[in-house]
Amino acid sequence: MDIKAAQRQCEAYTCPLPEGHDRGSYYILGAAGEVGEAANIVKKVLRGDGPLDKQELALEFADVLIYLLCASNAYEIDLERAFEQKMEINAKRFKRWVKT
Ligand SMILES: [Mg+2]
After folding, report:
1. Burial tier of 47 (Cβ tally within 10 Å: 0-12, 13-18, 19+)
2. How many angstroms does the Cα of residue 90 sit away from the middle of ligand 1?
3. Environment of ion ligand 1 (residues, CB < 5 A)
4. CB 44 within 8 A of CB 50
5. For position 68, what pLDDT does the model report?
C-alpha cells in the first residue's frame, strides 16, 4: 500500500470531538502520545525488563502513522508528496549519510 492509499483508508475514520475542537490538533496530539508509547517500550528494554518485542513496537509505529495520516487528512496535506519533497531536501542536506 502506498501513502496515498493509506491516507484514503484513514478518511473512513473520524473521531467524535466536541464542537469547535480542531481535529488536526487532536490527531497530532494522538501521534505524540503514540510516539511516547513506542518510547516506553524501548525504555523498558534499556531498563533491563526484557528483550525488545518488535511486534509490539511495530504496532505502536503503526499507531503513529495512522494519527499522522489522519492529521494530514484534517489539514488537507498530501503526505506522500510531502514525504517525497522532504526526502529530496534531506538527500542534499545529509549527503554523507546516503548509501551509495
Ligand atoms: Mg498505541
Report:
1. exposed
2. 28
3. 34, 37, 60, 63
4. yes
5. 97
- Contact between 10 and 65 (Cβ < 8 Å): no
Q: Which residue has the cell 533491563?
A: 48
pTM of the model: 0.90
Give the distance (Å) from ligand 1 centre to CA of residue 61: 8
pLDDT by residue for the chain (100 residues), tens only, comes to 899 999 999 998 877 888 888 999 999 999 999 999 999 999 999 999 999 999 999 999 999 999 999 999 999 999 999 999 999 999 999 988 888 7
Q: Which CATH number fits domain 3-97: 1.10.287.1080, 1.10.760.10, 2.130.10.10, 3.40.50.720?
A: 1.10.287.1080
DSSP state of 95: G
Q: How far is CA 84 from CA 1, 3, 71, 89, in A?
A: 16, 11, 18, 9
